[in-house]
Amino acid sequence: MKPLKILFADDDLKYSLLLKRFLEQEGYEVTYVGNGRMAVEQFPLVRPDLVLLDINMPGLNGFEVAARIREADKHVLIFFLSDRSDKADRLQGFSLRANDYLAKPFYPEELIARIRERFALQLEETVEEETYRFGNTVFSYNTNELRTASSKVLITSRQADILRLLALNVNQAVSRDRLLEAVWGAASYANSLALNVQITYLRKALKNDPLVKIESLMKKGYVLRG
Predict the structure, then answer these.
(1) Are the C-beta atoms of residues 163 and 202 closer than 8 Å to each other?
(2) What is the dihedral of CA 201, 205, 211, 216, to 10 degrees?
(3) What pLDDT, in 10s, does the model give residues 77-114?
(4) Are 77 and 49 in contact (CB under 8 A)?
(5) What is the structure's pLDDT at 185?
(6) Is residue 7 within 8 Å of residue 52, measured between CB atoms?
(7) Are 128 and 43 in contact (CB under 8 A)?
(8) So what's the architecture of 5-124 in CATH?
(9) What one GO molecular function would you report for this record (predicted)?
């Protein structure tokens, strides 16, 4: 069995190297970085099973890193390890779909126990694959993949959420407000601009299938044709 891969981001070098060594002695493969920006850069290269994040880091803080990672991956485990232990910080962490939040100081053995528990639960859970077919394209919501006979394209989690709602209503109009509420939680001006950008990216991702297109409907929203 391959060792589980961990991406660990914390700007406290001495503490981090000690914890990294402890995790490696337990059989984990650990990539350590000293700031949030490096964590974002390394994430697609490492493809970790678990991300450990401090919050107070230079460049990007742990919350910002978690938000970016969740854009790309809905399923990877994320643990916050922080000396910020108040209720507001914990709630913010879990609002970003973190899987755990440990307040420093903690015993390394406690972290190991929580990692083992989370991976045991993950192995027990059977995730039913959610797929949609339109035109010559197969869309896997679980993996964010668009597949045709000759191509495979990965899209972000945000784009997958948008496409899922359109695919559930293929050849039917879906209003902008419904998309904004479902994907961003609110129909604000800033979110509306973000939706425009994500629709543009989705159109590019779907260009390999001439039978599929996303149409804009004046004052009605969008429709997925396929």
Answers:
(1) yes
(2) -10
(3) 999 999 888 899 899 999 998 999 999 999 999 999 99
(4) yes
(5) 84
(6) yes
(7) no
(8) 3-Layer(aba) Sandwich (3.40)
(9) transcription cis-regulatory region binding
Please provide residue 58's backbone torsions phi and psi, each rounded to the nearest 5 degrees.
Answer: -70, 155
76 backbone dihedrals φ, ψ, rounded to 5°: -60, 145
Is 1.20.1180.10 the CATH number for 131-225?
Answer: no
Instruction: Please provide the average confidence, as pLDDT, over all residues in the chain.
Output: 90
Instruction: Break the chain into its structural domains and give their ranges.
Output: 5-124, 131-225
Peptide bond into 105 cis (omega under 30): yes
CB 80 within 8 A of CB 53: yes
DSSP conformation class of 206: T
Q: Name the residue with tokens 């797929």.
A: 131
User: How is 162-173 classified by DSSP, letter by letter?
Assistant: HHHHHHHTTTS-
SS3 105: coil
The candidate with the shortest Cα–Cα distance to 104, out of 15, 168, 173, 176, is 15
- Residue 148 one-letter amino acid: T
- Structural contact between residues 3 and 38, judged by C-beta atoms closer than 8 angstroms: no
